[in-house]
Amino acid sequence: MVTLLELLAPAGNADIGIAAIDHGADAVYIGAPRFSARADASTSVADIARLIQHAHLYYARVYVALNTIMTDLELPEALEIIQEVFQMGADGLILQDLGLLELDLPPIPLIASTQMHNNTPEKVQFLEAVGFKRVILARELSLDEIAIIRQNTRVELEAFVYGALCVSYSGQCYMSQAATGRSGNRGVCAQPCRSPYTLIDGNGKVIQQDKFLLSLKDLNLISAIPDLIAAGVTSFKIEGRYKGIDYVKNVTAAFRQAIDQFISGHSDYCRSSSGSSTFTFSPEPSRTFNRGYTRYFITGRKEKVASIDTQKAIGQYVGTVTSVGKTYFRMDRHDLQNGDGICFFTKQKNLAGFRIDRVDKDKIYPNNMTGLNVGIPLYRNHDMAFTRILKKTSAHRRIAVEMVFIQEDAIIRLTVRDEDGNEVETIREVLCEPPRDPSRALKQIETHLLSIGNSPYQVIVLTIHPQQPGFLPVSTLNGIRRDVLETLTRIRLEKYPRQFVRLTPNNAPFPEIRLDFRANVLNDHARRFYERHGAEIIEPAFETLSSIAGKTVMTTRYCIRHQLDLCPTKHNRSTRPLKEPLKIRDRHHTYCLEFDCQQCRMFVILEGSGVNRKQHKGGCIV
Length: 622
Fold this sequence. Notes:
This protein is an alpha/beta fold. It is 23% helix and 27% strand.
């Protein structure tokens, strides 16, 4: 049995989604016109339809994200959108709000958003039982944890492999709502995790001043593709519906090559769409937006995952300053060009940068020399040469076809069979003239049947009978080639292997009995859903609470104490424990930090009354 592997790319709009398909994506995900977790990346129905048409030609899929929580008044509109995108041909619906499952949904495959925080076998088993075809796993899971989920379920597993990381458990971050009134679960996160904070101990002593203590590096698991496959993942998701087309082209192409390399050595795996892409560039993810890279917790807690000195993109490391003149500097070697953007960290660990005005052999003239010293590492966060390449057509995706051309009596017959087994034939009545030069006539037929231009097809085999055909006009050859390929395109779209999944409500027990605000229940339909599955809602969604003081606004596997080498565990016995409680504060709010050292979790709590957790010395929950 062959296992299908899917490369899933983001589509901030239809044009970016089309570029992702052309650069090798097996599927793309795009925001619905409303109710997407990236509200500013919502897309019109016309654009979604245009993207679906392009993707389905390559048997690639389009998933529509409708993954916010909704009020009862919003559910009818959400249902209308779902029905509309289903009629367009969407291949799946990414959901967070389980109240939608109480509606009369069309038979569209359901995908459980990572906003549901899908982190345990029990949770994934439940989602499978109630009808989800796929589950998007929590980002912070390790390979071992994914493997256990795979052993206990049969549902498709999708995992993030690249891009920005939410520091909190997805769907359980309420910091933006608490601080700004903008809810991440409603699609308008203000990203307070990318803001600077000051860390203070229980005595009021400042431990870190104005640092990006909750801002993580970007995920990059390109080298872990084989391990993820072994653990049971079959869909590999690139984050980035707010990212530009250059980012999507570059990263998609890089992961296409990585997955294809794995497939080439494993005959029991294949890609889940048709065609192959060729690129006009060498993909390098570090040459487009990134904050530096982390493998997060895929192999456990083994690295520092935050970028506390900056929340901005630093790009690609390009070398170290070797000498400094009055208006220029030198590096040991470089490929820098006029207009490149360069950044570096000052002695105070602040991010600084400049543009390159001119490169004269080994001398590099920036528009600002401030802070440049010998030995400083430099990073390129704007690559002019790479950007120029990516702004043009940088990939072609072709579907392999075999052509058979037969000339007999007064007709010519052109048959085309594609890599998916679709076959079409065009026949024309033609009076053929005996060729003066048979080899030239044969060559002309070959040349014009193979001249596919911007067609989405690539002829890998062309068979011509007889070997000494009669002479045919160029217009006839071009016309029959054009007609047969247009017919093939129509047939491919008609035979697109779309999946239909009818939802059947049941009473499968939810793995928890009492659910507080972290269940994100904002409507009566969601409440009824949970109650039907044996759970009691003891608290509505955070967005409706009248008092939020003392509430945990973020739960995360990331730990500030570990990041700063202040973890008071047996592995760090020499570390002098800090006076608890630790707090972080910005200009407007103060948050108390609590630590569950047994589970290695950190809780960020909006300061105020109502905190009632049992603690022991050291600030760890027991």
